Fold these 4 entries.
Entry 1:
Amino acid sequence: MRLTVIGCSGSVPGPDSPASCYLLEADDPADGRTWRVVLDLGSGASGPLQRHLPGGDLTALDAVLLSHLHADHCLDACSLYVAIKHGPAAHRGEPRAPMPLWAPTGAAGRLARAYDLPEDGPGMTEQFAVGAWADRAPVQVGPFTVEPVLVEHPVEAYGLRVTGPAEAGGGATAVLAYTGDTDDCSGLDHLAADADLLLTEASFTDDLPFERGIHLSGARAGDVAARAGARSVLATHLTPWADPGAVLAELRSRFDGPADLARPGAVHHL
């Protein structure tokens, strides 16, 4: 599997990064075809995402996997809707099945309202085949097995544990654990257990006042990684007003394995 960071700014787009979006690619051992999915598609992400897709075509994606329905994690699905409905392939009359979009309950209505589509119409269901996550009920998308794990956030939210082909080949698999937005909770122990890479939000440092039950600090992210036995950590969802160096230092004070910050355009091999 190859993970490309598209956007890693927390809560709002930042001056150097759009909001949350991560492109995950893998070659299917059965036929060699490359599968491409995104974990979240937050504000501003659809622009730079095009740099990492064949021909710059957003419709080259095979699926969209949304952790939750806050704007900084889902709203650029509206841009993808436009690309599917009005892009070059649509003008050529090329038929295509709706793109799978997995998300928490109510995603079809949420996205239709965001684009101001008529309430008595199909919304985006002709472009997206919308499925609802269920806690710890795996979904298969090409070579990826995606297990949603309910986490702690003010809205229905899931971390996503993705198992897929390891780049080492030979039938080996790798595990990417993506927290989405959450505070520390019991679900994270299952989500991150022995993960090859824990892609964890670490929105700020512990010294900043922030209500519990919403986000992880660098320290709390490090605690999760350490007790779950994650092999490496990538800290993401840093707010534009956080000090990235301080967040990373706080995380490393609790986790002694490899740890770094997510950076737009960076590629990580699993």
Note: The chain has eight helices and 14 strands.
Entry 2:
Amino acid sequence: MIAPVRPEHPNRMERAAASLVRGVVRVPGMRRVLLSRVVALPGYWFATGCAFVWGTVLFGRHRRSHGLHVIYRLPRWSFGRGGTTIGAIYLTRENLTDSVLEHEAVHRAQWRRYGLSMPVLYLAAGRVARTNRFEVEAGLEKGGYA
């Protein structure tokens, strides 16, 4: 088994998230419950709805691509990095290349699997893309991290 890669120099939020994840994993059966479709899918739908409202309130343009609802032309402060996927919604200003959308489609699948656990797990994985397992799985090059 390959050991998980730890974030380099995690900040306070990343350490807190990692501690929370470790604590939850120690509770017998909790991981199975949180990752079950019965719990994860409603979380995914809730996150999708919240992100859709966020993008709509900020007057973003909407289109569908790669299985995502893409809301673009948003203010730069309204999302992280070049764009952020929350549930099935990709929020961005203008980062709309095919390779980026393929990368973000993987994040959509991750949201479907992990539901509302996704933000905590992502934060615990760290902000450095090359050590963040979610970014590595989505493809660093496609996401513009290479």
Note: The mean pLDDT is 92.
Entry 3:
Amino acid sequence: MTENVPAVPEQGADKPGGELIATRKGMFGVRNGGDTSGYGGLVRRIELPGASERPFGGYFDVVADELEGALEEQGLPLEAISAYVVYRGQLTIHVPREHLVRVAKTLRDDPALRFEMCLGVTGIHFPEESGRELHSVVPLLSITHNRRIRLETTAPDVDPHIPSLYEVYPTVDWHERESYDMFGIIYDGHPGLTRILMPDDWLGHPQRKDYPLGGIPVEFKGAQIPAPDQRRAYS
């Protein structure tokens, strides 16, 4: 027996309750020195989906009910889940970092949930989100019930620590290393949190929004292509 993703009205960034965190102008969002892309008139709203209200539709309500019941049996507080967000056909469960491992174990082990497979770990950097600039997103799959959800937790730039899910899903080993390498998220409890893409002595984390865009050295005539935010301004 399989369950399809429920067809429910969208709730999120473009609906009431969405959260505007920044407005960027130009192609690269350059703040100093002027736009260099020729798209100086481009304005983008950086928004995050807001919390959704029940009913979510389809199996999303079943997952939420079963998870809350299982956590209550374990004596975990209601604050173990900070929000449910239904957006673009996906259910994201927002969890404070101190409860992440316990919630993940419950999602894996409870017979009514059985999210046996972790599909990866993704880091995100929102420098405008004061106090929660770093996000870690974990997509989960239940092979038993044919369901998909996502877990999401956050950490501030000044304290970029998030518990590792290695003890729950050992396959996150390399995924957490990549998120650490690219975004600087420190996964506490990881068995070998070292860089996986960049050299060990590399400074900084290249996919953070505050990381310099960088230029490309050219091997002839001593020329160099400057970084995109340092080229000729068009506006």
Note: The mean pLDDT is 87.
Entry 4:
Amino acid sequence: MSIHRTVLALSALLTAAAPVTAQGVSNLRIMAPAAPGGGWDQTSRALQTVMQNEGIAKPVQVFNVPGAGGTIGLAQLYNSKGDGGLLMTMGLVMVGAIQTNSSKVDLSRVTPIARLTGEYEVIVVPASSPYKTLSDLANAWKATPTLAFAGGSAGGTDHMLVGLFAKAAGVDTKKMNYVPFSGGGETLAAVLGNQVAAGVAGYGEFEAQIKAGRLRALGISAPKAQAGIPVPTMKAQGFNIDLANWRGIVAPPGLTGSEKAALVSAMDKLHASKEWKDTLKSRNWTDLYMSGSKFDVFLKLEASRTRELLKDIGLVK
């Protein structure tokens, strides 16, 4: 081998190894597979701030690759095989978008690192609604399957929750009347304007109106009662539903064991830091942390559950 080729080969090896150092991770890039300002972007930039301030990784760059529910970014991540200095923020919305957009790349093709945060969903009705409980709404829905529910985009977390509620209530999921809106403000207006029977969103989107007494929250999709949220769980009311709009972190395929371990360790350190705990509190994010092999298993189960649910709803064949 010539000296020139030897230098090039050594340079390539050093470049590949650069993200993992004795101190942790350096030259880290985090992809937010959506436009600036949304949940994935906010999560990515919060990670950037805490990781740099805590010395977990330096420098940390955030960049946006919007489009198709995150699947454009997912394809780009897949094509960055072996890049141990690249992470992508993602979540349940992407799990669904992979199915509804018939993405050629799914989450079995990436390296799971950690689940970070989440928000539980609530079903609300106007304060003047005749439905006082989730059972009241379920009984009315069984009697009138065309009862309309408002929420976010088709196939998203809100739509999934309505599908789960339909199954638990004994309503045909393929006949349910789900009205998708592009933003929480439109959903809120539809509910308050009595254009629909009920609305679905993350608790935070309806919190002010619930506290003001304009909306009645009938149930929250959490596994147990949530501190500071005076809404009964759907489970406690006889509907076996547990759904969180969670967000997590994945890396490209083809990482070495040590590269993956370094990234998991970085997330573990982030989660243990006081600044991250303060960030969760200030942003009202629910801590749903899970890393390493546990997150691997969770992702597989979540992909399977989402696929079956979207089939039931009629959005996926």
Note: Confidence is low (pLDDT under 50) at residues 1-19.
